[in-house]
Specification:
Layout lengths: L21 H11 L9 H4 L5 E5 L2 E4 L4 E4 L2 H4 L8 H14 L11 H13 L6 E5 L2 H18 L6 E5 L8 H6 L3 H4 L9 E4 L13 H19 L4 E6 L15 H12 L2 E5 L13 H4 L6 E4 L11 E5 L1 H9 L14 H16 L2 H18 L6 E7 L2 E6 L11 H18 L2 E2 L1 E3 L5 E4 L7 H23 L7
Parallel strand pairs: 3-13, 5-6, 5-7, 7-8, 8-9
Antiparallel strand pairs: 1-2, 2-3, 4-10, 9-10, 11-12, 12-15, 14-15
Helix pairs in contact: 4-13, 5-13, 6-12, 9-10, 14-16, 15-16
The structure holds pyridoxal-5'-phosphate.
Length: about 475
């Protein structure tokens, strides 16, 4: 963050209710808090951003600087930051009524009601819900359900298929499906033998101009992987309908139908990881509905509580739940907090708000306008590709727009970390600058954001790109 914060975003009303001492927070966080996926060395010399409150689509840091929450926290504050009172009342009512009961051999009404509500939103024939605390555990649970489902049907399938660069979480099972080296390498060998196939990013692909041919190429790539591994050894295939890591890789038409056909042909379970996609992010309750996919399981987390409490889960197709429901098998997996009354009460309140306030309708109405504004941004320096849907978009930045030449790793580091990141922050935008695959600017505002806020957000991205182009022209970039 820089001191030259110039956003003209509206102020968050009033003074913070809880006073903070910025210097003490910096001292204590450096002494005591271990961070997730963070280069902590950087913060020996730089101040780490500390956010203290939020309102609508904005958050405010400890110095009173306001930022658009352009990534919805980590794709989870889908209702923004102003529903805390209402959702908090639902949480309080639950805590007054029943603090805790597990969902092992006993149950409680709130978990039952949320499972029922989620099943009613899910694709036809997906009527069973297993609750977890997080997305990683949801993916881990889907894997264990797949293993045990095959065992109940007399097969011991031990391998999985996932896609390159996809992120599916960090527990040892989920990490096996995560498809990039920096997350995997320190923990290899991983728990599940997994073959990673191509994702659906088509920018630079020779068949990019022919959607049907590209789709067929992807499905052929998958069939080749199955042939190599032995399809009878594969328990499940996991993929996000719109893949986040790499930057909102959209599925070509027919892709999910092709996956279904191939999985049926070889008896493989198909899992849609909707930890980000689900609960409105792509303009429908589930991306599987939007893309007419028919997965056997859907993993979810994040949006189900819109960031107000930890909760995740797996929605399970009836034929996959069958051995567990009929007692042919017992799911040998569980956790203390599965379906916790607090989180499920919050989940129910969030579902009420999504329905009552037309949140998914807002995403659908905004999508074509956002798409058009982003298409216009193709004229900007460095913007090679724009892609996405709903409130889930990415701009891929390239060194040479004419040839789509990518940045080298050092160049991408300068571009994202030294140049663009400071410019976005100085102008009051939080978003993600990611280079797990090629460098992208990822924009995923809260699902309640209106076009004014989104316009402000895109204006900041535009100004930042133009500023950095000036720096490159002045010879400040490492390749200049
Ligand atoms: C697609 C996907 N799956 C799984 C996960 C893991 O979720 P969590 O961080 O809640 O464990 C994530 C997290 O970002 C994700 O994006």
């Amino acid at each position: 963050m820089t001191a030259t914060h110039t956003t003209d975003s509206p102020l968050i009303s009033g003074e913070p209710r809880i006073p903070h001492d910025p210097a003490a927070l910096q001292r204590d966080l450096k002494s005591h808090l271990l961070f997730n996926f963070t280069d902590m060395k950087r913060f020996e010399t730089e101040e780490m951003p500390v956010f203290v409150r939020g309102e609508g689509c904005y958050v405010e840091d400890v110095h009173g600087r306001r930022f658009i929450d352009g990534l919805s926290g980590l794709f989870c504050t889908n209702l923004g930051h102003s529903y805390g009172d209402e959702i908090g009342q639902a949480a309080l009512a639950q805590m007054r009524e029943l603090v805790y009961t597990p969902t092992w051999t006993v149950a409680h009404p709130t978990a039952i009601e949320l499972a029922t509500r989620i099943a009613s939103k899910a694709p036809e024939g997906m009527d069973h819900v297993f609750f977890t605390n997080s997305g990683s555990e949801a993916v881990e649970s889907a894997w264990k359900l797949a293993r045990q489902w095959h065992q109940a049907n007399g097969q011991d399938r031990r391998k999985a298929i996932a896609r390159r660069y996809a992120y599916h979480g960090t527990t040892m099972g989920a990490l096996s499906f995560t498809g990039y080296a920096s997350a995997r390498a320190p923990f290899e060998p991983l728990a599940v033998p997994t073959h990673h196939v191509a994702h659906t990013g088509s920018y630079r692909h020779p068949l990019a101009g022919d959607e049907a041919a590209f789709c067929q190429w992807l499905l052929d790539d998958l069939e080749a992987a199955l042939e190599f591994e032995g399809p009878e050894t594969i328990a499940m295939l996991i993929a996000e309908p719109v893949q986040n890591s790499g930057g909102s890789y959209m599925p070509p038409a027919g892709y999910w139908q092709g996956l279904r056909e191939i999985c049926d042909k070889y008896g493989i379970l198909l899992v849609a990881d909707e930890v980000i996609n689900g609960f409105g992010r792509v303009g429908d309750w589930f991306a599987s509905l939007r893309f007419d996919a028919a997965p056997d399981m859907i993993t979810f987390a994040k949006g189900v509580t819109a960031g107000h409490a930890p909760l995740g889960g797996v929605i399970v197709r009836d034929r996959v739940a069958e051995p567990f429901v009929t007692g042919r098998a017992m799911f040998a997996h569980g956790n203390t907090w599965s379906g916790h009354p607090l989180s499920t009460a919050i989940g129910l309140s969030v579902l009420d708000i999504i329905e009552r306030d037309g949140v998914i309708e807002n995403v659908r109405a905004n999508e074509p306008q956002i798409g058009a504004l982003l298409e216009d941004m193709r004229d900007l320096p460095f913007v090679g590709d724009v892609r996405g849907c709903g409130h889930f978009w990415a701009l891929e930045v390239v060194k040479d727009k004419a040839t789509a030449e990518p940045f080298s790793q050092d160049e991408a580091n300068w571009m994202l970390r030294d140049a663009l990141s400071g410019q976005m922050a100085a102008r009051g935008l939080l978003c993600r600058l990611d280079d797990r695959d090629q460098p992208v600017i990822q924009l995923s505002p809260p699902l309640i954001a209106d076009m004014d806020t989104i316009g402000t957000m895109l204006g900041i991205v535009r100004d930042a790109l133009i500023h950095v182009d000036g720096q490159v022209r002045n010879g400040e970039a490492p390749w200049a």
